[in-house]
Amino acid sequence: GLEDFMSDALAASDAPTIDCSEGVALLPALGHEGHDHDTAYDPHIWMDPERADQMVRNIGAGLADADPEQAEQYMENAQTVGFTLYNLKMVLRECIASDQSDLQLPHRELITFHDGFQYFAEAFDFDLLKAIEEEEGSEASAAEILEIVDLVQTHDIPAIFTEVNG
User: Fold this and answer.
1) What is the CA radius of gyration of the chain?
2) How does residue 138 score in pLDDT terms, banded at 50, 70 and 90?
3) Do the bridges between strand 127-133 and strand 109-114 make them parallel or antiparallel, or are there none, so unpaired?
4) At residue 113, does pLDDT exceed 50?
5) Separation between Cα atoms, residue 133 and residue 114, nearest integer Å
6) What is the separation, in whole angstroms, between the first and last Cα of the chain?
7) Residue 57 in contact with residue 76, Cβ under 8 Å?
8) Neighbour tally for 1: CB within 10 Å
9) Angle at 127 (CA atoms; ends 125, 131), nearest 5 degrees
10) Distance between CA 137 and CA 121 in Å, rounded?
């Protein structure tokens, strides 16, 4: 798959690489229990603005190391973007939690199509009940569809958002 292709491409290249996940608290991958995967963590770390802040700072530090003449500019830019991302998380958390906000949500439960939302759910205190597509390209079985319908009814989930796959 794509993950194997990227690993092979990185191994064959002598270009400098930046691990933007360094220092980021990683969550285990969903839907992979009992499987032997090289990546045992959920890679969708940018879905939490605070984790994205750390990613940006890692990228800035990596670019500064690779291009010392511009190091100060890379670090300043990373700090500015990272600070903006961190503030975004704090503002959104406050809006979601506030009784006065238009974003006040009566429900904290999510059922998502993809399995890439657990960082988002953790960042904003949502309860991620189920990811319909736990592995890319998989289809929900009849039993899983019944489970999802039961979750929607049990938690009285008021909205379903779809996406167009083209």
Assistant:
1) 19
2) low
3) parallel
4) yes
5) 5
6) 20
7) no
8) 7
9) 130
10) 22
